[in-house]
Design brief:
The chain is of the alpha/beta class. The chain folds into two domains: 5-177 and 308-397, FAD/NAD(P)-binding domain; 187-303, FAD/NAD(P)-binding domain. It is 24% helix and 20% strand. The chain contains ten helices and 17 strands. α6 (214-225) packs across α7.
Length: 404
């Protein structure tokens, strides 16, 4: 049964082997001597690799991408049954970039050959991108701290292999390693969905799932496919929500699977049931619902509460919004630390959410353009990004314009 963080040791070893292979490909390993670059990118996932290709397209050479584990490490942590909810399709030659591509002229549909990739498959795509574009990725490097340096416009990035100095830092860290586990009393007794390697390995006939958005419903569907029952609790009813923004809805891919699982009788949805606490009872657990109701659970509840995100590791270098996301300028730069940029699923601009790959990749060119201007590098190559919907600097087009 896979129910503890210790159970991910095998996965960590697997990622270490990925990191070793990446290190061999990316050239000389880091030394203890301090080095200097124009740009340090923290994180070699979809955001870090995608931005790296954008910097390459601008002809910028003085940068490095650092990751504590491996290229695509967050995707390697996905449960085995998890798939991309956004479909991949060979459409690039028709001017419509694959929704899951992180850069121009590539397509996971073409290289992987599936419509909804697994995490492992997508990590392989990212590794091929890093190799093809000869990105300066260095893995097995843990970033310990980021501080403004003594000299103006310089950062000191402390790592497990020595200090690195840079004029700019782009934070592109993942989310899967930083689950949100403190939403209510007793949340620590639950099993966060990110700690599950395979839903097939969980014991018991039935599981209670706290959270009915994408990750919670995905867990329920996977458990149903494994022949088990699942009861999903949520303070609202996200499975019935409608609107124009896919970031706030269940995807069509998930809805279709959920409908089949509900029809099978293996998944029960309980909306309007906020969980306010979890406690042990005998050999099982109890969920305390708002209003005084109590639900018995024989097995450890599944917590599908989302992630705090890796930007929390450099919290003091950002101001923070009321909703818990970093406050950014119109160029996705920290409002309090000049030269520190954010890319990836934690980016928010007003009410616009950039949590999907096809959304946050639209901001790579925005960040790259600002850095290029300060480095006095021509940003003309970025015009091609506009033609493929990869350069979104006018957010007025992000309103509700769906006719039906």
């Amino acid at each position: 049964m896979v129910e503890t963080l210790e159970a991910t040791v095998g996965l960590d070893r697997a990622m270490a082997s990925y990191a070793s292979a990446d290190a061999e490909r990316s050239g000389e390993p880091m030394t203890k001597e301090a080095r200097s670059f124009d740009i340090v990118v923290v994180g070699a996932g979809a955001a870090g690799v995608g931005l790296g290709v954008t910097l390459r397209d601008l002809g910028i050479e003085s940068f490095v991408i650092l990751d504590r584990a491996a290229v695509g490490a967050s995707f390697l942590r996905w449960p085995r049954q998890m798939r991309f909810i956004t479909p991949s399709f060979n459409s690039t030659q028709f001017g419509a970039l694959d929704l899951n591509a992180v850069c121009l002229h590539t397509s996971p549909a073409y290289s992987i050959g599936v419509e909804h990739p697994t995490g492992k498959e997508y990590a392989g795509y990212l590794r091929r991108i890093a190799k093809h574009f000869d990105l300066p990725v260095e893995t097995g490097v843990d970033v310990l701290s980021v501080a403004t340096g003594a000299r103006p416009k310089r950062f000191r990035v402390e790592t497990s292999r020595g200090d690195v100095h840079a004029r700019f830092v782009v934070w592109a860290g993942g989310e899967m390693q930083y689950p949100r586990t403190n939403g209510f009393r007793g949340a620590e007794l639950c099993l966060h969905n990110s700690q599950v390697t395979s839903w097939d390995d969980l014991g018991g006939d039935e599981r209670c799932i706290i959270g009915g958005s994408e990750s919670g419903v995905d867990a329920a569907v996977a458990l149903a496919a494994a022949g088990r029952r699942a009861v999903v609790f949520d303070r609202e009813e996200p499975w019935t929500r409608k609107g124009p923004d896919p970031s706030q809805l269940l995807s069509p891919f998930t809805k279709a699977r959920l409908n089949s699982a509900v029809d099978s009788g293996r998944v029960t949805l309980r909306g309007g049931c906020p969980v306010i606490g979890v406690r042990r009872k005998d050999k099982g657990y109890q969920l305390a619902l708002k209003g005084g109701h109590v639900v018995d659970c024989a097995e450890k509840p599944i917590l599908a509460s989302g992630f705090v995100g890796s930007a929390s590791l450099v919290r003091s270098l950002f101001d923070w919004r009321d909703d818990g996301f970093p406050l950014l300028t119109e160029d996705d730069e920290s409002t309090v630390t000049r030269g520190l940029f954010l890319v990836g699923p934690q980016v928010r601009q007003g009410d616009v959410i950039f949590c999907f790959i096809y959304k946050f990749r639209q901001r790579f060119a925005v960040v790259a353009n600002r850095i290029a201007r300060r480095l006095r590098v021509s940003a003309k190559p970025l015009e091609e990004y506009r033609s493929y919907g990869m350069y979104l600097d006018d957010l007025s087009c992000c309103g509700d314009d769906c006719a039906c």
